[in-house]
Amino acid sequence: MLECKVFVCHSPMIFVSNKSETPLELYEGDLAPEFSFRDRNGILHRLSDITKGKKVVVYFYPRDFTPGCTTEALDFTKDYHKFERQGIEIIGVSPDDEDSHKKFTEKMKIPYPLAVDSNNLISKSYGAFGPKKFMGKDYIGINRSTFLIDKDGRILKIFRKVKPAGHSSDVLQAFGAMK
Description:
alpha+beta; Glutaredoxin; five-stranded mixed β-sheet; two-stranded antiparallel ribbon; 27% helix; 27% strand
């Protein structure tokens, strides 16, 4: 078992170790990589515990309080009760620390948990950490992506290169189409 400062990774995970930081590729139908995180009250949660009886949205975003990330978080917040009525939990994941997540959830009134991924272990295991380009500059970081996970822990759908505005509606629509 790999122990980390903020969360514990419970299953074998494939980490990116080459210098190019090529992201791991997951596919629809794969088992979602297990991860654990502490919520804003310090309670430890495991993905496998959450998926018992619920579908889960795991979305990766680069940073709290940036324009795109705020838009995406507010969209999921606005639609949160629609997700709840369908038995779907939402987990946001970014490399920000607990203090940043706490301020972000309080200011934006985010009702769902945000997981700290300061070492990018969760994002690497989902293939959401890797090469990206912004304003003509190449670098390594979080690629905005979303994974829809069923009650058995299998990935139902993957959204890559997510556009923040309206993404929550796209996710709800995708879950609706899978009934």
